[in-house]
Every structure is written in structure tokens, then in C-alpha cells.
Specification:
By secondary structure, this protein is of the alpha+beta class. The chain contains three helices and seven strands.
Length: 146
Amino acid sequence: MVVDVRTEIDIERPRAEVAAYATDPDNATSWYRNIKRIEWKTPPPLEVGSRVAFVARFLGRAINYTYEIGELEPGERLVMATSEGPFAMETTYTFSDAPNGGTHVTLRNRGRPSGFAKVTAPMMTGAMRRANQKDLKELKRICESR
């Protein structure tokens, strides 16, 4: 089974500002409710090939994983992937101009669970969608209050 979760939100702030905030790993703990800590494995700034470790809690379990940046188009797109944790995952952020002059943000997580994660994939998909929606709402709150 493939897990493919896409969530979207419009934020009433300029695209460059929203993208810069959302793609800075040092901000992850402020708007991702499940991410508890990050650690740069390569020196900042973020660029293709950068590696960032995350410590998260998801469905009551601690999860440690390291993402590697595969694509980075500042203000437009960030793609990062990990083969660690419950399953290999690719996370993609895209930023585009919203009709109201703000920013349309799309967050997509996709991967192929293995082992026990394969059994829980349907439950994980729903939990990921709900968590991502809450996280994007928090990103919106933070960006719009700045």
C-alpha cells in the first residue's frame, strides 16, 4: 500500500515570506506539533544534499529520522526524503501565489510502509492528514500574526 497524503492551505502573507519560514528547519518545532527537536547533520543553510534529523512523536511513539534535501527552489518548492522511521517517506512543500494575493501552500507526504507499518497504513494515513491540517493551520496563524 502506498501512503499519499496531500493537505493545502492559503496564507495571507507574501509567498517568499511564507516559504522562507516553512522551509527553515529551525522553525519546525514552532508549527509542527509532533516535531519535538531537530538537529542539523550538515551545516546550514539549507541546500540540496543537506541532512536534518528530526525527533517526533506520532501515534504515541517516538520516531527518529533524518531527511535529505533532494530539491530546493526557494519560494517555490522543497522536496526531502528519508528512508528511516516507520517507512520511507518523501515530503514535498510547494508554494504558489493565491488568488487573494497571499500564498497557497501544499504539503504532501508519500511513502511505502513496510513491516508492521504496512498493517497500520490506513490508520496512519488518516492520522497524518489530521496532523498535517493542524500543522498548516498553525503555520497560517504564525505567518499571519507576524
